[in-house]
Every structure is written in structure tokens, then in C-alpha cells.
């Protein structure tokens, strides 16, 4: 995965957490303070987000970059 892919996973996890808190607030009523001062992003949020993100770099491209790194590390 690229850095952009990781950013997409993290953003998606944050959105999953926000959606969960909004559902809680809708259930409890608009006067409730569901987050209690902070949003908790869980491992489950990351797992759900990861399902929707496809790597933007193919295995072939990744192998190419690994070869370049080895070549220029010397």
C-alpha cells in the first residue's frame, strides 16, 4: 500500500467511528453527549475501512520500486 492508501484507510476508519457516534446520538436523542469529549476509533473501524480500500500500487510496481531501492542503496 502507498502512503495515500494508508491515508484513505485512516480517513475511512475515522468516518466509521463518526457514523457509529451519529447513530448512537440519533438513538439517544439530540441532547446527548455521546462521545463524552472524544471520538474513539477502534480496530473494528480500521478493519471495516480496509475492506473498501484497494492498493493503488500493483505487485509488479511494488517489485519495481524494491529493485530500485536495492540498486540505489549501495
UniProtKB/TrEMBL annotation:
Top-rank taxon, per record: Eukaryota
Molecular-function GO terms, alphabetical: ATP binding
Pfam families: Vps4_C
UniProt keywords, alphabetically: ATP-binding, Nucleotide-binding
Spastin/Vps4 C-terminal domain residues: 40-66
Protein name: Spastin/Vps4 C-terminal domain-containing protein
Species in which this protein is naturally found: Ladona fulva
Amino acid at each position: 500500500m502507498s502512503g495515500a492508501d494508508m491515508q484513505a484507510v485512516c480517513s475511512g476508519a475515522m468516518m466509521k467511528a463518526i457514523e457509529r457516534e451519529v447513530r448512537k446520538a440519533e438513538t439517544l436523542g439530540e441532547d446527548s453527549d455521546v462521545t463524552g469529549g472524544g471520538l474513539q476509533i477502534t480496530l473494528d473501524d480500521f478493519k471495516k475501512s480496509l475492506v473498501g480500500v484497494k492498493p493503488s500500487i500493483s505487485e509488479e510496481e511494488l517489485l519495481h520500486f524494491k529493485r530500485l531501492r536495492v540498486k540505489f542503496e549501495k
